[in-house]
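note to self: the first set is below, dont mix up w the second
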Amino acid sequence: SPLPWPGLHTWRRAPPSDLRSWGPNGPCAPNTDKAGPPEAAAGVGHGSSLAEMGALVLSTADPLAKAHLTHAAFSRWAAGGLPVGLARAPDHPARPEKPLAVTQKEVPTHKAMGVPLNAYMLHNLAHVELNAIDLAWDTVVRFSPLRDTLGDGFFADFARVADDESRHFRWYSQRLAELGFSFCGQIW
């Protein structure tokens, strides 16, 4: 049988990471001097369970709000503030109007768009992270009726994955902004 990942137990026991921005020396906590923590503006209190928070994330179209809600939900879960609960997953996760969902053949090249390759690749990576957030939450919500069978650890693992991916999405979004682009803006 395959050997388990040696870092699994350390990963599971780690507290939620607040290193949501990227500074000159690597990951750092976001600057919250002006508006308070981003999660405060993201409708954090709208879910009374992990599954309800997951359904809220899946129903949120704005990618940064989705990332903020994800971190708030996992932080509340990790602090013991949320039960798994029950919720119904939407048929499809909410998406912003841009970027358009197209087939791989329809995605224009960076040259055809006049976009630098680094911004193009960062946008692609951000898109992967956004889909990973939705996939992890969809698993939490869709399987919430099986909590007694699967156990809390199943849901904790997927919520942590969503939180990790939300951190990566925020890093990519930050770098895109530093390059003069946005995930929902200038790139297809």
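second set (the one i keep forgetting abt)
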Amino acid sequence: MEALNRHFSIFRRVKTERSLEQVMEKLEEALRSTVGGSVMREGNAIHVYDGNNNLSFGFVAEVNAVVTVKMVGDDSYEFDAQISLQPSQLFWVTTIAGIFCLQFLWVFTVLYFVIDPRTHYQKALDRVGT
């Protein structure tokens, strides 16, 4: 259901002496260690699939992101991260079971709407500037 999907955006500008290739490698490494999941590079964008490591209640959602890198000066780069959350299979199982018999399982459904992955992705972007 598209109506339950949630979307977040993060924007960050970094000043560094590194080349674009070095920035992309550093960003890829930062995303792998901070949010985990499957990290794939495609041109000036990095796709993260199932990047919910270290995320509180991350088990109730599938977290995917696309981080694009744009050079804006000789020593400045802009990162634009588009993060999307989709309900996981556990979300649907607990929602359906909660409707019919086990109402306490609704807590997992509520947790989906509490998740905010922006802080973890922001930490990854901040690590590139150091």
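remember for set 2: The chain has a mean pLDDT of 88.
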